[in-house]
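Internal tracking record. Fields below are filled automatically when a chain is submitted to the structure queue. Please do not edit lines marked as system-generated. If the sequence contains nonstandard residues, flag them in the REMARKS field before resubmitting.
Queue: standard
Priority: normal
Entity type: single polypeptide chain
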Amino acid sequence: MPTFAYAGRTRAGETVSRERAGDAAANTKGKAGKRVAAKNLAVFTRQFSVMIDAGLPLVQCLDILGAQETDKNFSAVILWKVIPTFVSLFSGLGAELPVPTRVVIALSENLVRRFPFLLVLGGAAVYGFRLCYGTGTGRRMVDGILLKMPVLGPIVRKIAVARFCRTLGTLVSSGVPTLDGLEITAKAAGNAVVENAVMLTRKGIERRKTVSASLKETGVFPPMVTQMIGVGEATGALDTMLAKIADFYEDEVDTAVAGLLTLLEPIMIALLGAIVAGILIAMYLPIFDLISKLT
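SYSTEM-GENERATED OUTPUT FOLLOWS
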């Protein structure tokens, strides 16, 4: 008969280390099998009650109860090991499972069964995305979607504007002609939509338009950028104005990224907590029902 061992700390701070014996018979068919399954459930509930009284966390309790024998001494992931153990326990007793429990069990079974397929599908999706992004049309489509996204879009646009102004300002201050500077800046833009807008601006300058007017026609750059560039052109300090715009938008990007990270951290914690709590609640619902029937 295998032995189930557990250790932990009580609410008073006292270290607890105990063992429980349980029947590992796997055949649950017929009356004898159901008696064995009922005995296993009684052992399970005793272990569960003692561990909860000892102050062990719920996840650690599930991990311990998911083990088959102490000489194996391994820890398993909930969806891969613990839930299948619960499934065999519930099926052996013929328990009526609630809907949340059936959903979690279905997710666990599908994850284990289809993991190789999902792995291959994920690799194929990444490879297909890289092929699509490698084409001009695919790159423009993806970059256009990035610029239109609700939260990420403004940050991507600010990064592109800061990079454009910083690069062009450095080239102009170094004595590079504006047309050549725009061509170099377009290649270093990092975004296909911005690159196309810069090249359209270059064509507008070739038709004797100003930089600010050509940028405004593209509709990609914010109005403040085109107005400040127009002031720089009028005063003969285009490179200085471009550097100031770059400084402003770099600060804006830093602030936006810091705010986004501050917002994402509690959201991710809450999301992960909700997922774990949902799994635990779904698996405990039939356990509590069976415990109430036994008592």
